[in-house]
Amino acid sequence: MTTSPKDIPTLSDLYSSNEIPQAENESKYGYDEGLNKRVSIWRGDITKLEADMIVNAANSSLLGGGGVDGAIHRAAGPDLLEECEGLGGAETGDTKVTKGYELPSKYVAHTVGPIYSSRAVDKCAKQLKSCYQTSLESCQNHGGGAIGFSSISTGVYGYPIKDATEIAIETTRNFLEKDQSVTRVIYVVFSKKDEEVYKSIIPQYFPPPPSASSDDNQQE
Ligand code: APR
């Protein structure tokens, strides 16, 4: 059973149905309904997502592993590994694209996230930002459409989920403002906790419509 982006609510839908909590902090970006229709948070298995591209949290060998990497290789079948064997690995922060094979998605973007180190926070942040940026560019270069992201580096690689999510969402906002080819970014979260983190942070970068109540205040 696969899930198509058209069956996944957008952020605009989630705001309308009050499923996003009030922003914890002041929004850093302006309200943009068009952008809010191009972003989703979806709790599910990325190997079941029928997107144009899904993003794998790979390692530098690009030859598979555990976690989401293992799930994607198992679901895609042996041809994925065969194509990966010809890629020659990748540096941290870089992304290489393969076909999706037996996955419902057309392509897989294999991005190599940083192994988190509290002694190199700035370097890790730059590398993680590059993972999201180069993955989005890969989608743009492969015809655009819908891209599903797993939460890069936040599992085995130990990146604190809140810090990683800030980077993921801010990089996406800045990219979508300049690009029209990527029609939907779906953050695929694998736990309730991660879903709550994404929902608590996203209003800072993709704010909700100005609320009617604040308009009322202005009329008084
Ligand atoms: N669908 C969506 N998300 C998943 C799935 C899945 N089927 N399986 C795991 N996840 C989530 C995890 O819960 C975590 O939030 O993907 C996120 C990334 O976790 P990891 O897979 O551990 O990836 P990462 O932290 O980037 O570590 C990468 O782990 O598997 C190895 O080969 C991989 O060496 C690399 C390292």
UniProtKB/TrEMBL annotation:
InterPro entries: Macro_dom (IPR002589), Macro_dom-like (IPR043472). Gene3D superfamilies: Leucine Aminopeptidase, subunit E, domain 1. NCBIfam families: PRK00431.1-6. This is Macro domain-containing protein. Coiled coil: none annotated. It comes from the Eukaryota. Residues 26-206 form the Macro domain. The lineage of its organism: Eukaryota, Fungi, Dikarya, Basidiomycota, Agaricomycotina. Residues 1-25 are annotated as: Disordered. CDD domains: Macro_OAADPr_deacetylase. It comes from Kwoniella europaea PYCC6329.
